[in-house]
Design brief:
Jelly Rolls, four-stranded antiparallel beta sheet, 5 helices
């Protein structure tokens, strides 16, 4: 635990009660948060997409890297303590060790999602009604365009 928190030792700590919002989807505050203790849930719209309990876990890193509003709402599910860098982009630009931690964390998540999507394709790619899984995965694999914009780029009136 100490190793993951050491690079953030100089940041101020903020306490959150269960139910308190750390960041709100669409917010543009630009802060980068580091979990010291407690538990958080991540929601995209009304859908819970992740639970965060590992000390040293970062919140707001994608927003800080891409210069975009927060892509999800994060709230405490139990009393939690976090460290806060009010200017996340500046922290990442000024500290290569922290930037590397962010890169490693994002690479781990990408690796997990890629493996999961490949498994979905293998299991369900040819199933009746689910062939769109294979189509979506192929489009993701071949993506060579400008960075994605926030939100869904799916066809609002798909053929399926």
């Amino acid at each position: 635990m100490t190793d993951h928190l050491a690079p953030f030792a100089d940041l101020p700590e903020v306490a959150f009660a269960a139910g308190d919002v750390v960041v709100r989807e669409g917010g543009t505050e630009g802060a980068l948060w580091v979990l010291v203790s407690g538990a958080l849930q991540v929601r995209k719209g009304a859908v819970v997409v992740n639970a965060v309990t590992r000390p040293g876990a970062l919140i707001g890193e994608i927003s800080a890297l891409l210069g975009r509003p927060y892509g999800a709402t994060v709230e405490a599910t139990e009393p939690s303590v976090m460290r806060c860098a009010a200017n996340g982009p500046a922290l990442l630009a000024s500290n290569p060790a922290i930037a590397r931690l962010v890169a490693v964390g994002l690479a781990e998540r990408l690796d997990f999602v890629t493996s999961y999507l490949a498994d979905l394709k293998q299991q369900y790619g040819d199933a009746p009604g689910l062939t769109m899984v294979s189509d979506v995965l192929n489009r993701l694999a071949l993506r060579q365009t400008a960075p994605a914009r926030p939100g869904s780029a799916r066809d609002p009136q798909p053929d399926y």
